[in-house]
Amino acid sequence: MAWSTRELAELAKTTVNTIRHYHRLGLLEEPDRRYNGYKQYEGRHLVSLLRIRRLAELGVPLSQMHEVGTRSGSTPDVLRDIDAELKKSIERLQEARTHIAAIIAHRAPADVPAGFEAVASRLSETDNAVIHLMSHLYDGETLTDVLEMTADETDDTGPDIDRLPADADEETRQELAGRMAEVLARNMTDYPWLGDPASLQSGDAHLTATTVGDVLAELYNPAQLDVMMRAGVLAAERVQAQQGQAIQKGQTSGT
């Protein structure tokens, strides 16, 4: 019995266009034609088509179909490569599902940085942008520290820095910088890498620093940047003073 292209497609549960594509690639042998010019497929064509469909289901690229079909000795290597790629894809999909579940559970915005779903309500648009940038620059362990700092409910300076106008007066700047310095000094003690964050960044240090500087300059107005710089200086001074006191106390107790 002979079948038309449409009938063959129905039997193989595929499409006419797919069969024609396999013909163009030389994967499926062209059948003889009837007196009226129509193709007539036989059982061997159906079997070949089913084999091609099976390999496609396994993920074998069309470009490797000939190799797999004609050189059986290479088949295990090809399948091992495909299996490794499938494993990576499954891991990516499982990770995506985990993040989606967290976004749904915490009713967080879809674009919240990965791992920060639980604290999304504390993140302003600027915070969101900064953490996305940090996610690109730092490893998972460092971001865990950032998450812990973000979740600190005793830090109430975030909304104030977000609302700080570009023309904020000196008294407002200094007061806010002092409050931020208190929190930052505590964080610098708990997370020493904050004293030299560039040491944990990957890639060219100068390029990274320039990129971070450019992004922050776009995200914050001059008054906000000024306050954060002041807070950084004050916090460093406090940490240094605390360390000096600790050393002095240790020396005193040792005498």
TrEMBL record:
Keywords attached to this entry: DNA-binding
Per the record's keyword annotation, is DNA-binding included, yes or no? yes
Q: Tell me the organism.
A: Arthrobacter gengyunqii
This protein's name:
MerR family transcriptional regulator
Origin superkingdom: Bacteria
- Keyword Ligase tagged: no
**Domain named HTH merR-type: residues:** 2-71
UniProt xrefs under Pfam families:
MerR_1
